[in-house]
């Protein structure tokens, strides 16, 4: 199959491309390199089945593909908040362009949505039928409302134009190739610990997140894309940890001497987050297999290589 991956030079996109290339597909990676890097896909450059296109998805493009994995969008709060209008354009105009492309070439489109569509949830754990508690005018809105519109666009193109869609709601994911200046909690803690700096815990660290290792997530993507259910489907690891527990885990694994440094909690930071993955289990036969400790070991090893 010819498979287009938007955002393919990013963290998750590049791991997905590895899987697709190893399976023998023709892969087109489309990226504007805002948060993605050529080094993530370097090993495929020059391979006859691989094409790299530097392109911003807010502009239209004509391509041929059988499947489109649509991942292009900065995912870390630091990056998506640094140019919020651009984030909305990427989510709305970019998704519109990709759905238009899918409609023209009759490709199946996989939308990388997010647990952020649930906002600061009143339902715990979050099930797909929960409609969310999102602030439409806050500093996270460019991302979470942007993704909500992107989901709406998917379903409207599906109903109105018969576009074949798959929608995944991705929960916090971590692993090798996260950017060291990414600002997300796992990369921050690991980079700080390796550099001998205090670990910056925002708020009192009692807020929770559920962390999925990237190879587990990619397996879920491929099953959803090639299965019969359009979603939305939660993809994430149901293991729930407080941010303080995560800090203590990284501390114990890298350097127990390093202190925790408590900082103010950012605006609209969700209090709790944990996926209910019943649908993914029943529809896709999918669940995560890599425990946090093991995933952290692999991620720490990757950062250690890059930082030294
Ligand atoms: P990332 O920032 O590493 O990757 C995003 C990629 O999209 C980058 O390569 C970037 O250069 C590219 N991009 C951004 N704007 C673009 C544009 N206008 N045109 C073309 N390319 C553009 O992030 P990631 O963690 O790999 O996330 C991938 C997708 O998964 C995103 O859509 C994100 O919203 C979603 N997601 C990720 C997580 C997570 O925990 N990592 C959680 C929920 C959802
Ligand atoms: N966080 C933290 N220290 C950091 C970075 C993040 O305590 O150095 C917290 C952040 O406030 C949030 C959680 O960790 O409660 C997850 O943050 P991240 O940016 O990784 O993802 P998101 O908030 O989008 O889930």
Automatic annotation (TrEMBL):
The keyword Transmembrane helix applies. One of its GO terms (biological process) is D-xylose metabolic process. It is a single-pass type II membrane protein. Its cofactor is NAD(+). Pathway: Nucleotide-sugar biosynthesis; UDP-alpha-D-xylose biosynthesis; UDP-alpha-D-xylose from UDP-alpha-D-glucuronate: step 1/1. One of its GO terms (cellular component) is cytoplasm. It is found in: Cytoplasm; Golgi apparatus, Golgi stack membrane. Its main location: cytoplasm. GO terms for molecular function: NAD+ binding; UDP-glucuronate decarboxylase activity. Its EC number is 4.1.1.35. It comes from the Bacteria. Belongs to the NAD(P)-dependent epimerase/dehydratase family. UDP-glucuronic acid decarboxylase subfamily. This is UDP-glucuronate decarboxylase.
């Amino acid at each position: 199959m010819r498979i287009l991956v938007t955002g393919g030079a990013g963290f998750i996109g590049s791991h997905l491309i590895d899987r697709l290339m190893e399976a023998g597909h023709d892969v087109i990676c489309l990226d504007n390199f805002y948060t993605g890097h050529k080094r993530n896909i370097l090993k495929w450059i020059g391979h006859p089945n691989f094409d790299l296109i530097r392109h911003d998805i807010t502009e239209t493009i004509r391509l041929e593909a059988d499947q489109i994995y649509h991942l292009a969008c900065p995912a870390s709060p630091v990056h998506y908040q640094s140019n919020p209008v651009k984030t909305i354009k990427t989510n709305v105009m970019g998704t519109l362009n990709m759905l238009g492309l899918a409609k023209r070439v009759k490709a199946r489109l996989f939308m990388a949505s997010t647990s952020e569509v649930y906002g600061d949830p009143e339902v715990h754990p979050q099930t797909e039928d929960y409609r969310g508690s999102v602030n439409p005018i806050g500093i996270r809105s460019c991302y979470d409302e942007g993704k909500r519109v992107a989901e709406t666009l998917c379903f409207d193109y599906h109903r109105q134009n018969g576009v074949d869609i798959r929608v995944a709601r991705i929960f916090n994911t971590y692993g090798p190739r996260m950017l060291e200046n990414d600002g997300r909690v796992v990369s921050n803690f690991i980079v700080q610990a390796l550099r001998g700096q205090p670990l910056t815990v925002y708020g009192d660290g009692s807020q929770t997140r559920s962390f999925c290792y990237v190879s587990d997530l990619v397996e879920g993507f491929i099953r959803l894309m090639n299965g019969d259910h359009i979603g939305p489907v939660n993809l994430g690891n149901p293991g729930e940890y407080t941010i303080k527990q995560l800090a203590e885990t990284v501390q114990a694994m890298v350097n127990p001497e390093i202190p925790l440094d408590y900082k103010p909690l950012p605006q609209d930071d969700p209090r709790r987050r944990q996926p209910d993955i019943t649908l993914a289990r029943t529809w896709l036969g999918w669940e995560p297999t890599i425990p946090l400790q093991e995933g952290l070991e692999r991620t720490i090893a990757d950062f250690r290589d890059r930082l030294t």
